[in-house]
Design a protein that fits this description.
By secondary structure, the protein is α+β, with helices and mostly antiparallel strands. It is built from 13 helices and 27 strands. The structure holds fe (ii) ion.
Length: 580
């Protein structure tokens, strides 16, 4: 292989333990010289010139290994030979492991290496070379082992290129944290006229390709566009990511066999579309490929004695089709008992039986001080009076009636804040009519959620649930059906996707008005901010968790700042899981 100048080959013996090749059809894990079970068959003479245009990334670190990633853009068709190195210093004077291999059009010229032989809890730098060119350097960190006193993360979701600039990614690139947890909607599948695209052209962020994503080539091109964004590249280069997909990596409101935004009559077989989307996802994201099936992404990461992070798939692997309130309403009026019976149907699943068994096993075996679920959709009970849904649910009304919605909200808040003994029969009926507002979330699969929370509580798990998907920020106390405290939930807002404050929904002024009111309406909900883009920062210690919802001023200009006045922090004591 080509030698790097100025390398001190202090640890090249270690490199002989090099990297692992994980067999997977279409895998972009490259063969590496120095690998114990793989070999570099690439011929430097056959390599075509190429450039690094999509940055670098790392992810899924363990105590002794981490995935590093890049992508090359070839100047002509052919194979591209890649060299990589991992060092303990940013100048790369002390290289710990290095290797080489090749990539090709078969994996869209992406490159993924599972670098082994690393030390626990250690900061590393990595970079790639081809054709005399060197990529930028990335920074990553392995997981600690044994006694661990702190861990810190940024939690994000829902990065929508046409909706605005990725200022949140820029912001988190500058944070000092151990890792980024990305809860999905890393990209959106829509064409140029799709969701949140009103100002896309004006912002210079019209989507590529200019159609809804349906083919492997489409999905690859969209990833390439997103990864051309300098702010996203900066975030990846700064931190290892733990990523799961949500629905938009395939199509809106997906379930295991279909999606709201998929019409088999005009868009073909959903399972084929799904597998193409998943192939591109594995090619373009720094995720360790599974050894068995490509669509299994649930997995565990441990920070020594401190916490187990269980990344889940509530979207693709097992989810039954969502209900909509159409299923339970006549002439726009919801049959509350029928709806509740649907949500509490014990045969419905969000995780699927295999993942659920895996999760129960992980919870049972965990001896960590905290158990964290990194997953897509809100897990708390977010129930509001049926009248509010009847006014605002687009499935029930041709046009959202904001006046009616505000009146219903104020009436409901009035009823809820009145002591039960003093409520009028109408007020009590309002309170008694509470049903979930989001049937795509765990609320639409209430039986399975309640079983899971009861199980974790019986085990004494110290449960922290992280959720994305809603594009707004939430903090909730999770409880069992008996009212016992089961844990806490933090829902992060979005990187750029509009939430309830979006033009097609409440708009920013109404969303600001609704935010404190819904807190008074929903049991267990301690905080909601329905306005603004940002992220959650969260720190764990053996005694407590401190989580802060952070926001930026705008995604519609690159000239932004952190909106410090909007930040809100919560603390959770491990002893009692109470939110303060
Ligand atoms: Fe989203």
């Amino acid at each position: 292989m080509t030698d790097f100048p100025h390398l001190k080959r202090r640890s090249l013996i270690k490199a002989l333990a090099g990297t692992t090749l994980i067999p997977l059809l279409g895998s972009n894990l490259i063969a590496c010289s120095g690998s114990s079970n793989g070999s570099d068959n690439s011929d430097p003479a056959l390599s075509v010139p190429a450039d690094f245009l999509h940055g670098v990334a790392s992810g899924d670190p363990l105590t002794d290994r981490v995935i590093i990633w890049t992508r090359v853009t070839p100047q002509s068709e052919g194979q591209v030979r890649i060299e990589w190195e991992v060092a303990s210093d940013p100048a790369f004077t002390t290289v710990i492991v290095e290797g080489s291999g090749a990539t090709s059009a078969a994996v869209d010229y992406t490159v993924k290496v599972d670098v082994e032989g690393l030390e626990p809890g250690t900061l590393y730098y990595y970079r790639f070379r081809t054709d005399g060119k060197t990529s930028e350097a990335g920074k990553t960190r392995t997981l600690p082992e044994g006694s661990t006193l702190k861990a810190s993360f940024v939690v994000i979701s829902c990065s929508n290129y046409p909706a605005g600039y990725f200022n949140v990614y820029r912001e988190i690139a500058n944070q000092e944290v151990d890792a980024v947890i990305h809860l999905g909607d890393y990209l959106y599948e829509y064409g140029p006229e799709g969701y949140a695209s009103d100002r896309a052209e004006e912002l210079g962020r019209g989507v590529e390709p200019k159609n809804e994503l349906l083919s492997l080539s489409d999905y690859r091109k969209r990833y390439a566009q997103y990864r051309s964004d300098a702010d996203l590249q900066a975030a990846h280069a700064a931190h290892p990511f733990f990523i799961v997909w949500d629905d938009h990596e395939v199509a809106n409101d997906g379930w295991s066999d279909g999606a709201e935004n998929h019409d088999p009559d005009t868009e073909g077989d959903y399972s084929e579309r799904k597998m193409m989307a998943i192939q591109a996802w594995y090619e373009w994201l720094p995720v360790r490929p599974p050894t068995n099936m490509k669509d299994i992404i649930y997995r565990r990461f441990s920070w020594g004695t401190l916490l187990d992070l269980l990344m889940l798939d509530t979207r693709v692997i097992g989810r039954d089709q969502q209900f909509t309130y159409d299923d339970f309403a006549t002439d726009g009026i919801i049959d509350v008992n029928k709806a509740r019976a649907g949500f509490n149907d014990s045969s419905r699943t969000l995780l699927g039986s295999e993942q659920l068994e895996w999760l129960r096993g992980q919870l049972s075996q965990s001896s960590a001080q905290w158990v964290v679920l990194g997953q897509q959709v809100l897990a708390g009970r977010y129930s509001v009076p049926a009248s509010l849904i009847e006014a605002l649910d687009p499935n029930l009304t041709d046009e959202i009636n904001l006046d009616k919605g505000v009146a219903a909200l104020l009436a409901a808040v009035g009823a809820k804040s009145t002591p039960p003994s003093e409520r009028t029969p109408e007020q009590q009926a309002l309170v008694d009519s509470a049903v979930p507002y989001n049937l795509d979330a765990w609320d639409g699969y209430g039986f399975e959620r309640d079983q899971l929370l009861n199980f974790a509580t019986q085990l004494g798990s110290k449960l922290v649930v992280l959720a994305g998907d809603t594009h707004n920020a939430w903090t909730s106390q999770l409880t069992t059906t008996d009212g016992n405290i089961a844990g806490v939930e933090f829902g992060c807002t979005s990187v750029s996707s509009p939430g309830f404050d979006g033009a097609g929904l409440l708009g920013p002024e109404n969303a600001a008005l609704f935010s404190p009111l819904v807190v008074g309406l929903i049991d267990g909900l301690k905080y909601a901010n329905l306005v603004g883009r940002g992220y959650l920062s969260i720190q764990f210690s053996p005694e407590d968790v401190v989580a802060t919802h952070r926001f930026i001023t705008t995604v519609e200009s690159k000239d932004y700042a952190e909106d410090q006045s909007a930040s809100v922090s919560f603390t959770v004591q491990r002893e009692n899981l109470l939110l303060t």
